[in-house]
Amino acid sequence: MTEKLRPFHLAFPITNIKKTIKWYTNTLGCKIGRINDRWVDFNFYGHQISAHLIDNEINFQNSNIVDGENIPCRHFGIILTKRKWNKLSDKLINEKIDFLIKPNIRFIGEKGEQSTFFIKDPSGNILEFKSFKNDRMIFDS
């Protein structure tokens, strides 16, 4: 018997709580959970992400080449259905959001073929949104 997938929790640093709340609610449509003057929880597609205010600059410089793209090593995101991925990518394009990596398909014709794009939040945290051509290939090697 397969256990039902449980929500994950991810905490990440931010430098401005007001800008973060505005961006995650307006740009991504996240709902606010618990909130404090130093942190805020968001409902990120059914998962709990917690933005924690820090007093210094965030620096994410390491990257790897993946299918010809320079992918930031430190990032998080969500795997959406193709319909939801298309809807979100279209929304962000229409809102003229700056993409770190524009919507594209990588690993074309291979195991793990996926639609993907990367964006940055106001604190420089990098988020990846992807949709697999076949969800059974998410963990295949």
- Element-level helix/strand string: EHEEEEEEHEEE
Determine the CATH topology of the largest domain.
2,3-Dihydroxybiphenyl 1,2-Dioxygenase, domain 1
Which radius of gyration do the C-alpha atoms yield? 16 Å
Strand order of the largest sheet: 1-4-3-2
Report the sheet-strand fraction: 35-45%
What's the name of the CATH homologous superfamily of the largest domain?
Answer: 2,3-Dihydroxybiphenyl 1,2-Dioxygenase, domain 1
User: Helical element count?
Assistant: 2
Q: Average pLDDT across residues?
A: 92
Shape summary: globular
- What is the C-level CATH assignment of the largest domain? Alpha Beta
Task: Briefly note the structural class of the backbone.
Answer: alpha+beta
Number of strands: 10
Largest sheet: 4 strands, mixed
Indicate how many domains the architecture comprises: 2
Note poorly predicted spans. none
Rounded to the nearest angstrom, the distance between the terminal CA atoms is: 23 Å
Q: What's the CATH architecture name of the largest domain?
A: Roll
Helix content: 10-25%
Characterization of this structure:
- The protein folds into two domains: 1-54, Roll (2,3-Dihydroxybiphenyl 1,2-Dioxygenase, domain 1), CATH 3.10.180.10; 63-141, 2,3-Dihydroxybiphenyl 1,2-Dioxygenase, domain 1.
- The mean pLDDT is 92.
- The longest helix has 13 residues, at 82-94.
- The strands form three sheets. Strands 1-4-3-2 form a four-stranded mixed β-sheet, covered by helices on one side. It has a four-stranded mixed β-sheet with strand order 7-10-9-8, with helices on one face. A two-stranded antiparallel ribbon has the order 5-6.
- It has helices at 17-27, 82-94; strands at 9-14, 31-35, 39-44, 47-53, 63-66, 69-72, 76-79, 99-106, 114-120, 126-132.
- It is an alpha+beta fold and 141 residues long.
